[in-house]
Amino acid sequence: LTGINYYDVTNIPQGELSSIDSYGDGKHYEIPAGKSVTANLGYSQQKDADCVILVKGTWRVPSDIQFSNSQLILVDNGGKIIFNGNATFDSGARFVNKGIIETATGTISIENSSTAEADCYNSGTMTLNKGGLSVAGNNSQLYNNGIMLMKYLEVRGSCTFTNFGKLTAESTTKNNYTT
User: Fold this and answer.
1) What mean pLDDT comes out for the span 158-169?
2) Quick one: how far is CA 130 from the chain centroid?
């Protein structure tokens, strides 16, 4: 995190948040502590892979969103993401959560069938209020050393889920719930 200049996405006009890669260096973005943004931050997957979004403030995602092409979402201590819809991590996309991830509705899916690994690490708090977590694919890996609370945890395929923290799920299948 040090030595990299992250572009403050709260300086991008609201109407342009659906395509942020023309700002800054095209790869490193930040929601600073004490600031908030409500948007599906869009990133051109054709331009470049390995986009990093560092969340130190609050990011409200108002609808379904997909992360792919090795995008990395970093939620720092004190940072928070609130998903109001489904969030899908695939094609090598990954997240590291040291803060808070919440869902108002929807499922967080980590589904990777490509050769790229989709590693996701939680050492903060994930509260999936009306939804759950779906982990599937050949190279999906989820590590928990924090707190995870959800309606369901669905794990399929040859993925890996390692838990050293606290995990509470009411069901092991999404079929029992409507989000």
Assistant:
1) 90
2) 17
